[in-house]
Specification:
The protein is of the alpha/beta class. It folds into 3 domains: about 1-20 and about 145-230, Glucose Oxidase, domain 1, CATH 3.50.30; about 35-140, PtsI, HPr-binding domain (Enzyme I, Chain A, domain 2); about 260-565, Phosphoenolpyruvate-binding domains (TIM Barrel, Alpha-Beta Barrel). It is about 45% helix and about 15% strand. It has an 8-stranded mixed sheet with strand order 1-8-7-3-4-5-6-2. Strands 9-10-11-12-13-14-15-16 form an 8-stranded parallel β-barrel, surrounded by 6 helices. Strand 9, helix 9 (about 280-285) and strand 10 (about 290-295) form a beta-alpha-beta unit. Helix 1 crosses helix 5 (about 120-140). The two termini are about 35 Å apart. It binds phosphoenolpyruvate (PEP) and magnesium ion. Magnesium ion binds near residues 450, 452 and 453.
């Protein structure tokens, strides 16, 4: 039998189904034992939860990294929030048992967070739900299934995975992950990708279809799950899995090699990050620096913007960890799909064409100069460049430069150390920046082509709207022409040109980008080795010959087909 779900983490996993079911958390039979006794039971459960979760966070930190661990630390903060516990105690005072108090208060927060538009807030609903279930299982004395002791070759199947469920999980025992709910940004997806496990999510009714022990073939690239396939299918998938593993082993050879084209030209291969906590992952994947630090994430989920000192420490931390490797810090890219609650923005009719990124920052010199000052101060500790997002005319660059120079003057007056020649670059992510690339190139030190936005604005197709996703493709000839124009103008002016949009991480695009003269690729850490391998397979000359052919094509399908046929 074949089921389909969301392909969330690539690769093929074959193994025996292990169902990770939640214990029965019904508390209908629990008798109310008086206000004082129930409050004491609640306090005991909260203390046990806190101790258990703190220990889990530590274990997870060493196992899979900070991001997953922080979700658990966040739960400890939530459960120790005096307002939340006072709400639970108030419920007990109304005559209900501790279980019902936990259930109703957590349930209220789950409902509140799930109704919010913001994806991060909806994610928080899952954290509170996890907290609700674990507090109930402590109160009821019904522990959860232990994932620590699963046998090798297990395919884990659950309604959804939370970080707390995966503590102690041994990567080498897990063949793949399958869930009944959760999407591409869920904890399950992030966990699977972090652990490089094949995963298919949101497979309808999968928990009911299985009883445990069935042989499952999980194809995390296509999103299919086969239940008890026949011998021939199993043999075919094993062969595919073997090829994939061989490819993986081949990729590992590129860990110790510099990034060179086939004719020995060096290209820079960096990574995109959102926090200094991502830097160890960059280094682990042999990224050569940071080509894009998206600083807007520092402004999210908080009630006031980060101060200059706080930002300085963050940029300094990233620069120090990179030990002299380059880091490009992009100034605040607010707006569009990135809503930042701590800033005084108003809802707009058309946020993607509105008051965003550099436009907003130039109207808030206080905020912009605070960030510039923090970046400048950090520039004394590493090789930092500044990148301006969403530029669409020269006036924006000139105004930003004035503010940068004013900030430099102030710091110099104060005797603060910084790099006076800090390079200033622009994102080329609007069609206007492409048409103006010759002029822009004369006034900045480098370009970084942002294909995510450049695709949506060139094709006039929302990058988040699945109905127009056929247009939102970097294989569209219109977009290729735009990239080519921007890169050519950078080359003509003798400035560096990089790319930090998703197209830089697709090996199919590599020969085209080499042909256009790209100096730097900035990709997600997991794309470093595939792109280094792809770069090593082309001379610029060969890449140019293929680009000549591709640039004569008329549709995105033709482009993709031609690139696939020539992949090396
Ligand atoms: C881009 O637009 O390509 C880009 C890298 O920026 P972001 O994805 O942050 O908008
Ligand atoms: Mg962008």
């Amino acid at each position: 039998m074949k089921c389909e779900g969301i392909p969330a983490s690539g690769g093929i996993g074959i193994g025996a189904a292990v169902l990770v079911a939640e214990p029965d958390l019904g508390y209908g039979n629990v008798v109310f034992s008086g206000v004082a006794a129930e409050k004491a039971r609640l306090a005991g459960a909260v203390a046990a939860f806190t101790a258990e979760t703190t220990a889990m966070a530590e274990e997870l930190r060493s196992q899979v990294g900070d991001t997953q661990a922080e979700i658990l630390s966040g739960q400890v903060m939530m459960v120790s929030d005096p307002y939340m516990t006072s709400q639970m105690n108030a419920a007990i005072e109304n005559g209900v048992c501790a279980e019902a108090a936990v259930d109703s208060v957590c349930g209220m927060y789950v409902e509140l967070f799930s109704s919010m538009e913001d994806e991060l807030m909806r994610q928080r609903a899952l954290d509170v739900e996890d907290m609700r279930r674990r507090l109930l299982s402590i109160l009821l004395g019904r522990p959860r299934a232990e994932l620590k002791r699963i046998p090798p070759g297990s395919v884990l199947v659950a309604r959804d995975f939370t970080p707390s469920m995966t503590v102690g999980l041994r990567r080498e025992n897990v063949a793949a992950i399958v869930t009944e709910s959760g999407g591409i940004t869920s904890h399950s997806a992030i966990l699977a990708r972090t652990m490089s496990l094949p995963a298919v999510l949101s497979v309808p009714n999968i928990m009911d279809l299985l009883s445990g022990g069935e042989t499952l073939v999980v194809d995390g690239s296509s999103g299919s799950v086969l239940i008890n396939p026949d011998d021939e299918t199993l043999r075919n998938y094993r062969a595919l899995q073997g090829e994939a593993l061989a490819r993986q082993a081949d990729l590992l050879r590129f860990r110790t090699r510099p990034t060179h084209t086939a004719d020995g030209e060096t290209v820079s291969l960096c990574c995109n990050i959102t926090s200094p906590r991502d830097v160890p992952n960059v280094l682990e994947h042999t990224g050569e620096g940071v080509g894009l630090f998206r600083t807007e994430f520092l402004f999210m989920n908080r009630s006031t913007p980060p101060s200059e000192e706080e930002q300085f420490r963050i940029y300094q931390d990233a620069a120090r960890q990179l030990e002299g490797r380059e880091i490009i810090i992009r100034t605040l890219d607010i707006g569009g799909d990135k809503d930042i609650a701590c800033l005084d923005t108003e809802p707009e009719e058309n946020p993607f064409l509105g008051f965003r990124a550099i436009r907003y920052c130039l109207s808030r010199p206080d905020l912009f100069k605070t960030q510039l000052s923090a970046i400048l101060r950090a520039s004394a500790y590493g090789s930092i460049r500044i990148l301006l997002p969403f530029v669409s005319c020269l006036d924006e660059v000139r105004s930003a430069r004035v503010m940068l120079e004013e900030t430099k003057c102030r710091l110099a007056d104060e005797g603060v150390a910084f790099n006076r020649d800090i390079p200033l670059g622009v994102m080329v992510e609007t069609p206007a920046a492409v048409f103006l690339a010759d002029k822009l190139a004369r006034e900045v030190d480098f370009f970084s082509i942002g294909t995510n936005d450049l695709t949506q604005y060139t094709l006039a197709a929302d990058r988040g709207n699945s109905k127009v996703s056929y247009l939102c493709s970097y294989f569209q000839p219109a977009l290729l022409r735009a990239i080519h124009m921007a890169a050519s103008q950078a080359k003509r002016a003798g400035i560096l040109v990089g790319m930090c949009g998703e197209a830089a991480g697709d090996p199919l695009m590599t020969p085209l980008l080499l042909a256009f003269g790209l100096d730097e690729f900035s990709v997600s850490p997991t794309a470093v080795l595939p792109i280094r391998q792809a770069i090593s397979r082309w001379t610029r000359e060969e890449a140019r010959a293929l680009a000549d052919q591709v640039m004569g094509l008329s549709t995105a399908d033709e482009v993709r087909t031609c690139l696939k046929a020539n992949v090396r």
